[in-house]
Write a structure and sequence with these properties.
9 helices, elongated, 6-stranded parallel beta sheet, about 50% helix
């Protein structure tokens, strides 16, 4: 950080601007209720089934050239999870579980009024870019339902490019889209190993970590320049960078 005027802000999406984690918990609960009413399963078996799905989601490696859509892959996650937890195959239940989970999650992925006001205010003073990792279809669906387009000068989805955060190449793409240099920018996000490390390696003026966790930055991670519990506190940080 050298005190140069900030010209642009790069924002992460999930758990930075929209509450993906908490909305996901609501979606999983709806699937749990479906499994209970449909199969009469006990709570432990339902929990095991849903935990298996979430673990498969966490370790997912989607290949868009493999001939299966992300929807088909994730229906497969539910099919495998049910089979592993219950020991039986069901014809239509995995599909029903997936689309209940997916649609319930999308319904809750909205920008809050306070976040909308923040983006409108910042957009009058800075160039704004949304930089999100993930499968192209999945992230574009989130962007659409949250109506993000109107707030940003550009939107970059990692799954549409050869490399995602934290690789410098995708940050250089963002800088080029905005017509700015790395030192003109601030990177804001909740992930230390993609947002903060990526911003640091790309040479941005400052990185801002969204975290309300106690204990600070774990060992082995790049330390952010600033930490705030919510993106709504960003203006106070920007005031320090003027």
């Amino acid at each position: 950080m050298d005190g140069e005027a900030v010209k642009a802000i790069l924002f992460d999406l999930d758990n930075t601007l929209i509450e993906t984690a908490s909305v996901g918990q609501v979606a999983i609960q709806k699937v749990s209720d479906l499994l209970k009413t449909t199969l009469g399963l006990d709570d432990n078996t339902i929990r095991t089934t849903c935990d298996k799905f979430m673990d498969k989601l966490l370790h997912e490696r989607f290949d868009p050239t493999a001939g299966r859509s992300i929807d088909e892959v994730r229906v497969g996650h539910w099919e495998e999870s049910i089979q592993e937890a219950i020991g039986r195959c069901y014809t239509s239940l995995p599909t029903e579980c997936y689309y209940l989970w997916k649609n319930s999650r999308l319904e809750g992925l909205t920008l809050s009024p306070d976040v909308c006001n923040l983006l409108e205010e910042l957009g009058s003073r800075y160039k704004l870019l949304l930089l999100t990792n993930g499968v192209a279809q999945t992230q574009r669906e989130k962007v659409a339902v949250a109506e993000c387009e109107k707030f940003f000068d550009a939107i970059v989805v990692g799954g549409e490019h050869a490399e995602q955060k934290p690789f410098p190449s995708i940050f250089r793409l963002c800088f080029n889209l905005l017509g700015v240099e790395a030192q003109d920018c601030v990177m804001v996000g909740d992930s230390l190993d993609t947002d903060i490390e990526g911003g640091f390696n790309a040479g941005v003026q400052a990185t801002v970590w969204i975290s309300d966790k106690e204990g600070g930055v774990p060992d082995g991670f790049v330390k952010p320049d600033y930490t705030i519990p919510t993106v709504l506190d960003l203006p106070a940080i920007l005031a320090k960078l003027k």
